[in-house]
Amino acid sequence: MTTRIHHLLDYWLNEAPDQPFIHLPDGTQVTFAQLGALTYVAEVELRALDVRPGDRVMVVAENCPEHAALIMACSRVGAWSCGVNARMAPGEIDAFAARADARVVYFTASASQAAAAHGARFDAVPSALPGMVRSAVRADAVTEPEPLRDEVAALIFTSGTTGEPKGVMLTHDALIHFARVTRDAREMRPADRSYAFVPMTHIFGLGTVLLSSLLAGSQLVMRPQFDPEDLLDALAHHGVSQLQGPPTLFSRLLAYLQQQGITQPVAPSLRYIYTGAGPLDLALKQRVEAMFGLTLHHGYGLSEYAGSVHVTRIDERRADTSAGYAVAEAEVQVTDATTGKPLPLGERGELWLRGRGLMPGYFRDPEATAAVMREGGWYASGDLGEMHADGAVFVVGRLKEMIIRSGFNVYPAEVETALNTHPSIQRSAVVGTPEGDGNEEIVAFVELRPGCPLELAALKDHLRSRLAPYKRPARIIALAELPTNNNGKILKRVLREQAGSMQTQGDKA
């Protein structure tokens, strides 16, 4: 019976131990048996360090087989794995270690120079697990009591794009359920290979990529980070059949192809492409579908639900940016953000959700948990969306990002969609800055396509036919690249601070 996430690996250790599971950049293959051996080494070490059920084991990592093994080993001993992206700043790493109350911290030193540098700050010593180093064991770390001790598999800190990160507790049951939902939605099978660059420190990489592939017995072309040249090589020569990632992945891939003069990548095995972890822009969707000749599937999910709540159907090609339909055992309703009352179909409001994948709460933060939980077991997501008659959901932005202009509500995603249809713009991000009397100025940041200048007069004409006057940006600022976090999400908090600190420059770029 599959009740713990390590059971997903155990199944294949019995059924097909010699089947390749991970393909590395140097051509090395890691079979299920070899991953099992790494997991055993990690498990023995964790027990020797007196890591107990309910302890947190933090892993400062970039993708590598040893990280996957440590996740499995934590499950075997009952500890909670807590992945943190190695590219975060020292202060962030230190804060996460303290907030997680980690018993021990591991670093994927061989796979990541950034992780090795963090390990040096922690005076890390070699681990029995190859390529890993670890901190000293903290004797004063407090073991989490029942029932959470036995229910939770992992702790993931939210990205903090709009505020302070919080530790999301993910249960074994929720993660296994999500792995099953993902496998079924993508019709994954052992012959499939996924390009696995999305960090396993994020729910996308952990659930959508690692655990769903373990459940299906499919393979991973594993990479520590995204590199467009390597991706094109993997598509052409290494049998990648499934490609998934945030919209940033596809935006950067398109920019690289344009720079290299490549009109269509060679991808003989590719059959499924998917984007999540961020809003989908229609212009991007159309360009990606034209490039690959495949449907760009989309979904809506979040860490607090252990993955996707809605996802598009594999046999349906939609011409819009819908995030698809509710997955098994998930419910979503659109509510009035003020009253909490459900809204009619087609009306825009806050998305509330509940179901099997919902977190039991934020780690040791009852106030933050109470702030988002509602009567009836509903979670108030803070996302704005609408539900159509066919059950498809459309996510249009964040409640906190909505801009008040001239007494009207302006949704940044609507303005971004208009901007992104201009042929010079690769992608954009729109924020609001206070002006006074409750009014906000609309500021647009744009990332231009390679070789394209910012021609403001032409862009203004473009927007004039697509947006009402109160929705048009007062300032349009060109950046070489929009700031993103390590998971590819645009950091609107940073852009809002930048817009607020700048003197009014009209339309100067």
| Low-pLDDT regions | 503-509
Annotation, overall tally of beta strands: 26
CATH architecture of the domain at 6-170: 3-Layer(aba) Sandwich
Per the CATH scheme, the topology name of the domain at 6-170 is Rossmann fold
- Span of the ends, CA to CA: 59 Å
Q: Name the quaternary structure.
A: single chain
Structural class: alpha/beta
The chain-level mean pLDDT equals 92
Rg from C-alpha positions? 23 Å
Your description of this structure?
The chain is α/β, with parallel strands linked by helices and 509 residues long. Among the domains are: 6-170, Rossmann fold (3-Layer(aba) Sandwich), CATH 3.40.50.980; 402-501, ANL, C-terminal domain (GMP Synthetase, Chain A, domain 3), CATH 3.30.300.30. It has 15 helices and 26 strands. A hairpin with a 5-residue loop joins strand 1 and strand 2. The longest helix is centred in the first third of the chain and has 17 residues, at 32-48. The chain is globular and about 65 Å long. Residues 503-509 have low confidence and may be disordered.
Task: Record keyword descriptors for this entry.
5-stranded mixed beta sheet, 15 helices, 509 residues, single chain, Rossmann fold, 26% strand, disordered C terminus, alpha/beta, globular, GMP Synthetase, Chain A, domain 3
